[in-house]
Amino acid sequence: MDPAQPLSGQVALVTGASRGIGLAIAGRLGRLQARVAICARNVRALEGAAEQLRRAGVETLGVPADVTRPGDVAALVERTRKAFGPIDILVNNAGIGVFGPVHETSEANWDAVLDTNLKGAFLTSRAVAPEMIQRRTGHIINISSLAGKNAFAGGGVYCASKWGLQGLTYCMAEDLRAYGIRVSVICPGTVATEFSPHTGKDVAKMLEAEDIAHVVAALVTQSAQSFISEVLIRPTQKP
């Protein structure tokens, strides 16, 4: 591995990458010389993100996709393969949040959060795993949250999705490690993005999207005989 270009020749797929954490991760992987496919539901935002990455010198493919739909996921993976080759790195970043007391939450909101945050990671991982198994190499990284470790009022649906994502991650890691595939989860604290309102919090004290991208870079450049299964990342000061 060339230290200056550690991901040269590798292909990365990042979901939910039209902005925020996903876009930062795609940019960081591109700077490490991976070819990067990104997806999002918002076509206009996706096109803008892809163009931003290309201007920064990243070889980028933007594919509109809803990760809750198996057909979209299959097309996303196939288009990535045709454009760049087999997928070496999958970052499951797509996520949404709905907050409020569980007893006041609609079934539609429950389904939207669980389908995006948990089912989406299952569908994309399932789509890329067979080829990774065949090639006996690969990285799957799930972006969770400290909400997958801690309970808080109004967080029932979101926390359920993230606790579930962590359980999925740990079991996938056991299923796939014998094939040389590393599965990891990153649990950030509050990040200064458009994802959720930060009423009453000091944005200057929050994590930045680039902090999460830095962790992803560390995971995918870890030496081959080991893997980091979980990373908890917090701001130095509480916002």
What does this structure look like?
With 239 residues, this protein is of the alpha/beta class. It has one domain (11-233): NAD(P)-binding Rossmann-like Domain (Rossmann fold, 3-Layer(aba) Sandwich). Helices cover 43% and strands 15% of the residues. It has helices spanning 20-31, 43-55, 70-84, 107-135, 156-176, 209-220; strands spanning 11-14, 35-40, 60-64, 89-92, 138-143, 181-188, 230-233. Strands 3-2-1-4-5-6-7 form a seven-stranded parallel beta sheet, sandwiched between helices. Helix 1 (20-31) crosses helix 6, helix 3 runs parallel beside helix 4 and helix 4 runs parallel beside helix 5. The protein is globular.
Features:
seven-stranded parallel beta sheet, Rossmann fold, alpha/beta, single chain, 43% helix, 239 residues
List the helices and strands and how they pair.
Blueprint: E1 11-14, H1 20-31, E2 35-40, H2 43-55, E3 60-64, H3 70-84, E4 89-92, H4 107-135, E5 138-143, H5 156-176, E6 181-188, H6 209-220, E7 230-233
Parallel strand pairs: 1-2, 1-4, 2-3, 4-5, 5-6, 6-7
In short:
This protein is α/β, with parallel strands linked by helices.
- The number of helices is 6
Taken in chain order, the helices and strands follow as EHEHEHEHEHEHE
The CATH topology is Rossmann fold
The best one-word shape is globular
Which CATH class is shown?
Answer: Alpha Beta
CATH H-tier superfamily: NAD(P)-binding Rossmann-like Domain
Distance between the termini: 39 Å
Q: Give the number of domains.
A: 1
Oligomer: single chain
Low-confidence stretches: none
Question: Strand pairing plus helix content: what structural class?
Answer: alpha/beta
Order the strands across the largest sheet as they lie in space. Answer: 3-2-1-4-5-6-7
Q: Give the fraction of residues assigned to helices.
A: 40-55%
The biggest beta sheet, please? Answer: 7 strands, parallel
Radius of gyration: 17 Å
CATH architecture: 3-Layer(aba) Sandwich
Percent of residues in beta strands: 15-25%
Number of strands: 7
Average per-residue pLDDT, rounded, comes to 95
